[in-house]
Amino acid sequence: MTRRQMLRLGIGGCIGASVLPLGKFGYHKYQVHQLGSQSRNFQVTGDRALVERAAVKGVIYGAATQQQFLAADPAFAKNFLKECRMIVTENDLQWNQVHPTPEQFDFAAADALLNFAKTNGLLFRGHNLVWHHSLPRWYREKVNAQNAEEYLIKHIQTLVRRYAGQVHSWDVVNEAINPKSGRSDQLRQTPWLEFLGPSYIETAFILAAEADPQALLVYNDFEMDYDRPEDEAKRTAVLGLLERLKSRDVPVHALGLQAHLWGAETRFNAKILSNFLRSVADLGLKILVTELDVTDKVLPADQALRDRIIASAYEDYLNVVLDEPAVIAVLTWGLSDKYTWLSEFSPRSDKLPVRPLPLDTSFKRKLTWNAIARAFDNAPIRSNSHLR
Ligand code: G3I
To answer: Is 25 a pocket residue for ligand 1 (Cβ < 6 Å)?
Structure first.
């Protein structure tokens, strides 16, 4: 039985070939030390970049970054161009960065990122138009139920019209689902919901579609990856939202799986994830992995072991995801450990530098790079109609 066949059956979804499956669709819960078993060699043929390995299978590979990093670090910019087909605005289009006062917008950083993309033939992806985080201070002071829609319309039309025809896709609404919200529709209690009710979601998509009919419009969310009750609840609730939006002909075109994974998490079931992706695709939606990284926060200090565990998590996840033809892009949330949000937001207690991404802080390819490369090399070919 090939590894891919094992994965399809949900056997050995998380660890190497040494898995002793509990049953047809299960596996042993492993101690972390076994996650780094030597059974996987991470060998890669040749040194073609990730962009090429993905493109020959009709998949876009790219990464999120910030203008300040590209501008200040030519070596980083050079490696970004070597490995990536797409650039994602990590923060430069967040509300608190691009809409600093009620009446003003600051596009300097985002324009520079777009210019970098156009100059170098990269695809450009906008993140995000509507979220409950990263709202500027003035939002709390000025926005209310009476004027919220006016601010929402102005924000979305200003951003999307400015970049119309130049954006591959937008994360239109980010993280709107919270199964623990106590609501029957399981929408997250956010200022947008408080001021505008559930219709803010379709309003956002309709506005974005009107402002840029060419852009792929994405609903983006996290915690849909594992065989855990929280993830299952999120998957079910997100699917319900997508079904409701599609039933009302709302112009949502794709689901964004953020895929912020954990190296120590062993509750990964290939069959469960694969079935969820198929259910999303059956709605006629494309799927993008939008913020992929794997935190090593609680893994052992040993760097070689940590790198093996992280790389295993990447490869196991991507082997399942890339088996789904509706998946058109894999985007890591950063390219190098030198620039990862996890350094600030999820540091290790032993203060060792975190190592969640394909390139190390000197832009050297790591086992994680090999894991991603192998996943692309092993992926089935899909049409590349979206690789414009
Ligand atoms: O730019 C200012 C700087 O001028 C100031 O001195 C500094 C003071 O702390 O803050 C800087 O802004 C920070 C910004 O990142 C740019 O580095 C914000 O404080 C910080 O909150 C912001 O964090 C970002 C976070 O979203 C919140 O917006 C992370 O970099 C970014 O990786 C993270 O990304 C999110 C996605 O948007 C949605 N999915 C989850 C993902 C991880 O949380």
So the answer is: no
In this structure, are residues 15 and 315 in contact, taking their beta carbons and an 8 Å threshold?
Answer: no
Query: Ligand 1 centre from 97 Cα, in Å?
Result: 9
Residues of the chain with pLDDT under 50: 1-31, 33, 388
The pLDDT value recorded for residue 35 is: 57
Q: Exposure of 384 by Cβ count < 10 A (0-12 exposed, 13-18 middle, 19+ buried)? A: middle
What is the set of active-site residues?
175, 291
Which amino acid residue places its CA nearest to atom 1 of ligand 1?
97
pLDDT, position 383? 74
DSSP state, residue 324: S
* 294 close to 268: Cβ distance less than 8 angstroms: no
The pTM assigned to this predicted structure is 0.92
- Look at residue 313 and give its three-state secondary structure: helix
Q: Is ligand 1 within 6 A of the CB of residue 341?
A: yes
* Cβ–ligand 1 contact at 291 (below 6 Å): yes
Paired with 65 in beta bridges are: 89
At residue 385, the 3 state secondary structure works out as: coil
Q: Return the SS3 of 341.
A: helix
State residue 292's pLDDT score: 99
Question: Is 191 in contact with 240 (CB distance < 8 Å)?
Answer: no
To which residue do tokens 């898995």 refer?
19
Distance CA 312, CA 317 (A): 8
The torsion defined by the Cα of 26, 27, 30 and 33, in degrees rounded to 10, comes to -130
pLDDT of residue 27: 31
Which atom from ligand 1 is nearest to the alpha carbon of 174? 38
pLDDT of residue 256: 99
